[in-house]
């Protein structure tokens, strides 16, 4: 194998076919960029899930004076009921990680803190807020166990899972990710078709050379290698551009724009980018090589 | 060197076979003319030898190998033993004479040092010394065919296939090309040449195989082109 010769064949092939090669570079960059972006959204969702699920609680609101649900027909919660609920919660360990009782006074204090800039604070009396148990689960997905055990019980007004609110948001992000992934996949199909056509044009423009190569007994591998490398180089450049784009998104969009504005949540770190980038390059170069390989089998037979 | 045993070649979508039950043998070191009208099967014969086609029936032996049983990845090794020359030269227009010859060695992975040594040698054999840096469009037809012969011969093949090598050349130039092919034959390479050129065949007095309608109608050592043409 003569590396110089192969290298000069590849570079002359790329120069001869420059517009098509550029088209391949750009479509590879765009489709892989979308692919990487959808992977990034997925990593973001999982980062946020980790961050938030750690903090979410199941709230068991107890009956107060104004409660009008059927389970509160017996009036405000009694001490016996409250103690029984606490004991039952403790018996659900280890699913129940910790139980925290929040009295009306504490609830009011927290309410005042949360809405301290809002005039609404002045209109709410401490007794309007229900007392509650804040339950932290070791596995937040097992909310149903707690809900079925406590919902509708006398003295309990409502069982709330904070996770449900988050899940709506995560579903939205998941949907966005799916759309991005679908667009990325269709772009990747376009990329493959484009590479197939590029190889066809390249094979045609070099048919003299290849026919001579066949006649003098060059091996199939030797005949096809320049084409394969051409496709791989073009796809590699496209993939590198896509990775550069991903890094820019991480630096500019996430670190400089989103993170300072949304400090209450966590964002994907560089570890996610480092995991996605090689995958993008692998997908890009692999697709190009597969597309080229099958095209060449068809157009450059012995 | 070449053995055809009951070879029939029927192309798809054609009723009449291009070759019909052809059996013949060409010995090592022979110089053979393949003559016959267009469509008589000369090109098919040569394509079968090069394993560009497979016979529909029968066996083709080249250099001791039965080509039907030759697996695909061994075809390049077969073709490295066979030089090929065509009527239309098939040179690469953007490469010089020396590069055109070197190309045949580069693509089979010969080392650069070997190429630097043998290319000038073979250009001398074909009489093109001093024209190494010319491009094909700067050469006459005869000179271009010499480049093509140099390329076919540079790897010292045991068999040279020439498909109407003088078809595009004037008679004077053709004589030079024939002298060159004769010299290559005397260096030990078997030469099989298809041609329509009566004067050349009559002058050379070598073995003549005449095909017509896919059949061998004449096989004559020291023959002439034909009787009543």
From TrEMBL, chain A:
GO terms for biological process: cell division. Its main location: membrane. Coiled coil: none annotated. Gene3D superfamilies: 3.30.70.3040. This is Cell division protein FtsX. InterPro entries: ABC3_permease_C (IPR003838), FtsX (IPR004513), FtsX_actino (IPR047929), FtsX_ECD (IPR040690). It is found in: Cell membrane. Belongs to the ABC-4 integral membrane protein family. FtsX subfamily. Residues 56-159 form the FtsX extracellular domain. It comes from freshwater metagenome.
UniProtKB/TrEMBL annotation, chain B:
PANTHER family: CELL DIVISION ATP-BINDING PROTEIN FTSE (PTHR24220:SF470), IMPORT ATP-BINDING PROTEIN (PTHR24220). NCBIfam families: FtsE (TIGR02673). It is a peripheral membrane protein. The lineage of its organism: unclassified sequences, metagenomes, ecological metagenomes. This is Cell division ATP-binding protein FtsE. Keywords: ATP-binding, Cell cycle, Cell division, Cell membrane, Membrane, Nucleotide-binding. The keyword Transmembrane helix does not apply. InterPro entries: AAA+_ATPase, ABC_transporter-like_ATP-bd, ABC_transporter-like_CS, ABC_transpr_LolD-like, Cell_div_FtsE, P-loop_NTPase. Belongs to the ABC transporter superfamily. GO terms for cellular component: plasma membrane. Residues 2-228 form the ABC transporter domain. The keyword Zinc-finger does not apply. GO terms for biological process: cell division. Pfam families: ABC_tran. It is found in: Cell membrane. GO terms for molecular function: ATP binding; ATP hydrolysis activity; transmembrane transporter activity.
């Amino acid at each position: 194998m003569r590396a110089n010769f192969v290298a000069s064949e590849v570079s002359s092939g790329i120069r001869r076919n420059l517009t098509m090669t550029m088209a391949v570079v750009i479509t590879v960059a765009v489709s892989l960029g979308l692919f990487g972006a959808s992977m990034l959204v997925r990593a973001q969702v999982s980062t946020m899930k980790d961050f938030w699920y750690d903090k979410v609680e199941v709230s068991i609101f107890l009956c107060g004076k104004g409660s009008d649900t059927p389970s509160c027909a017996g009036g405000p919660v009694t001490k016996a009921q409250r103690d029984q609920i606490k004991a039952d919660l403790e018996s659900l360990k280890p699913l129940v990680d910790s139980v925290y009782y929040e009295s009306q006074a504490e609830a009011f204090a927290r309410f005042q803190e949360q809405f301290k800039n809002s005039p609404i604070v002045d209109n709410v009396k401490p007794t309007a807020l229900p007392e509650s148990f804040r339950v932290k689960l070791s596995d937040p997905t097992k909310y149903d166990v707690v809900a079925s055990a406590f919902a509708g019980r006398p003295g309990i007004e409502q069982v709330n899972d904070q996770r449900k609110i988050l899940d709506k948001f995560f579903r939205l992000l998941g949907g966005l990710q799916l759309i991005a992934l679908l667009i990325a996949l269709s772009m990747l199909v376009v990329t493959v078709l484009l590479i197939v056509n590029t190889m066809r044009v390249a094979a045609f423009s070099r048919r003299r050379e290849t026919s001579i190569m066949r006649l003098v007994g060059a091996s199939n591998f030797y005949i096809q290698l320049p084409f394969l490398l051409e496709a791989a180089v073009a796809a590699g450049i496209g993939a590198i551009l896509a990775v550069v784009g991903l890094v820019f998104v991480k630096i500019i969009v996430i670190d400089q724009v989103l993170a300072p504005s949304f400090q209450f949540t966590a964002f994907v770190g560089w570890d996610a980018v480092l995991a996605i980038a090689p995958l993008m390059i692998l997908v890009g170069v692999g697709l190009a090589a597969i597309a080229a390989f099958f095209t060449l089998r068809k157009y450059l037979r012995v | 060197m070449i053995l055809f045993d009951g070879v029939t070649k029927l192309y798809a979508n054609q009723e009449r076979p291009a070759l019909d039950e052809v059996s013949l043998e060409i010995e090592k070191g022979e110089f053979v003319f393949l003559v016959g009208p267009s469509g008589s099967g000369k090109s098919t014969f040569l394509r079968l030898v090069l394993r560009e086609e497979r016979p529909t029936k029968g066996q083709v032996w080249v250099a001791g190998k039965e080509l039907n049983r030759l697996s695909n990845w061994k075809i390049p090794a077969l073709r490295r033993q066979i030089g090929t020359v065509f009527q239309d030269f098939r040179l690469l227009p953007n490469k010089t004479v020396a590069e055109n010859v070197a190309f045949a060695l580069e693509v089979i992975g010969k080392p650069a040092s070997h190429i630097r040594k043998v290319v000038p040698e073979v250009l001398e054999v074909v009489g093109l010394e001093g024209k190494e840096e010319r491009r094909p469009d700067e050469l006459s037809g005869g000179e271009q065919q010499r480049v093509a012969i140099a390329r076919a011969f540079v790897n010292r093949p045991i068999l040279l296939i020439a498909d109407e090598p003088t078809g595009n050349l004037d008679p004077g130039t053709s004589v030079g090309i024939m002298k060159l092919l004769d010299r290559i034959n005397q260096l030990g390479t078997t030469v099989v040449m298809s041609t329509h050129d009566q004067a050349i065949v009559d002058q050379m007095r070598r073995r003549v195989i005449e095909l017509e309608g896919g059949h061998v109608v004449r096989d004559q050592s020291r023959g002439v082109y034909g009787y009543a043409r």
